[in-house]
C-alpha cells in the first residue's frame, strides 16, 4: 500500500475530471427557452409557469402545484397553507438548512426541534413524540441529503396526534420511500429548485398538495395575480392584495428551464444514482466508512443525491478526527468536507433573538417562558455530535467508472492507513458544521 499523499506519497486521483462535476447541466433547449422568454418580454407572465407546475404536480401524482421564486417562499406558503399561526408549534429536525422551518417564526409560531437518527440523519420518530405538546400543529419532515425519512413511523405519529405533515424535499427530488415518491406522503411538500439542487432550474421553488384549502391559502398569501382562482368564500372576500404582503411568483426564465428539466431529469437522476451507488459499493466494508443511503431491497432511493454525506465511524479508526480524515482525502485529490448543516437548535435566532421587537424572544411565540423552554438547552445528543460523524463526498454527475474508482481508492487508502495519521491528529475542540452549505467545487 502506497504512502498517503498528505505524508508525501502519490495522489490517488490523477485522471482529468472534465465535466464530471459540472452543475447544472444546461442544454440547448433550456438556452433557447430562456432567450425566447427574454425576447418576448414574458419574464413576469405566468403562462409557462402554470404549465410547469402542473407537469411537476403530475409527475408526483398530486393535484396542485404552485411555483415560487425560491424554495424558502414555497415553504413559507406551505406553512401558511396548513394554517400555522400565532402560538402554534411545529416540530422540525435540528439538522437541516434554516429555510426548512425558520419562516414559521414570521407566522407567529414556534419551532420545537427534535433529534435525528445517526444513520439516516433524518428526524428520529421516537424523539418526535417526546416533543409534542397541546400546541403542536405540524411535523416538518426533511428528506435530508437525499435520504428518505422514515415516513411510515412519522405518518403514524401524525395520525395518532392529528398533526399536519409538511415535507421539505429540497434535497431529494425524485427519491422514493418504499416505492412512493417523497413529497407525496404528507399534507403538503415544498422543494427548492435553486441551481445547486439536483432538480436545478435557477432560483425557484415549488409547493405541491392534494389539499384545495392549502393550495388556496398559499395563493392568497403570496400570489395576488391568481386571486381570481380562489373559491373559498372566506378567502375570496378579501382577495386582491396578498395577505402575507409577499410576492412569490416564479420568474419565467426559471419555469421555462423547469419545463426542459422535467424532460431530462429522470435520465440525469438515473446516471447519478448509478455513479453514486457504484462509489459506495466500492467502499463496502472499509473500516470507519459507511454509506448514507437506504438499505438495499427496500425500494427506497436517494433521488438526485443532493448534498449526500458519508457516515464516519471514528471508533473503528482509533478515534481519528474527521478533520484529519478529510484533510487526508483532500490531499489524495478527491473532494471531501467536514460535517453537515449545523444544529439549528443552538442558533440564537431560535433562542434569544427578538426579531420583531415584541419584548421576548421570537421563538417563544408569546407562550409563557416556562412552557416555551429554550431550544439550546433541549436534549438533542445526536444533533449535537453529528458533525464529528459525517463528511461530504464527491457528487458524480456521470457514470465514469475509472474516475469513480480513483475517488473511492482515495477514501479507502486514507481509511486503511489511518494509523499513519494518528500522530499528526490535533483533534479540534469542537467540530462545527455550517449554517448554509456554500457552493463547493465538487
Ligand atoms: C435549499 C434549501 C431550502 C431553500 O431553498 P431556496 O431555493 O434556496 O430558497 C430549503 N430547505 C432545504 C433543506 C434546502 O436545502
Summarize the structure.
By secondary structure, the protein is of the alpha/beta class. Helix content is 31%, strand content 12%. Bound molecules: pyridoxal-5'-phosphate.
Strand share of the residues?
5-15%
Structural class: alpha/beta
Span between N and C termini?
27 Å
Question: Fraction of residues in helices?
Answer: 25-40%
Mean pLDDT: 96
| Major pleated sheet | 7 strands, mixed
Radius of gyration: 22 Å
Note the total helix count: 12
**Lateral strand order in the biggest sheet:** 1-9-8-5-4-2-3
Instruction: Give the distinct bound molecules.
Output: pyridoxal-5'-phosphate
The unreliable regions are none
Strand count: 13
Instruction: Give the topology string: H per helix, E per strand.
Output: HHEHEEHEHEEEEEHHHEEHEHEHH
Shape: globular
SSE blueprint and pairings:
Layout: H1 28-39, H2 47-60, E1 64-68, H3 71-81, E2 89-93, E3 110-114, H4 125-130, E4 136-142, H5 151-161, E5 164-168, E6 176-177, E7 180-181, E8 188-192, E9 205-209, H6 212-222, H7 233-236, H8 252-282, E10 289-291, E11 309-312, H9 322-331, E12 337-338, H10 381-385, E13 390-392, H11 401-416, H12 418-421
Parallel strand pairs: 2-3, 2-4, 4-5, 5-8
Antiparallel strand pairs: 1-9, 6-7, 8-9, 10-11, 11-13, 12-13
Helix pairs in contact: 1-8, 2-8, 3-6, 8-11
The structure holds pyridoxal-5'-phosphate (PLP).
Features:
442 residues; single chain; binds pyridoxal-5'-phosphate; 7-stranded mixed sheet; alpha/beta; 4-stranded antiparallel sheet
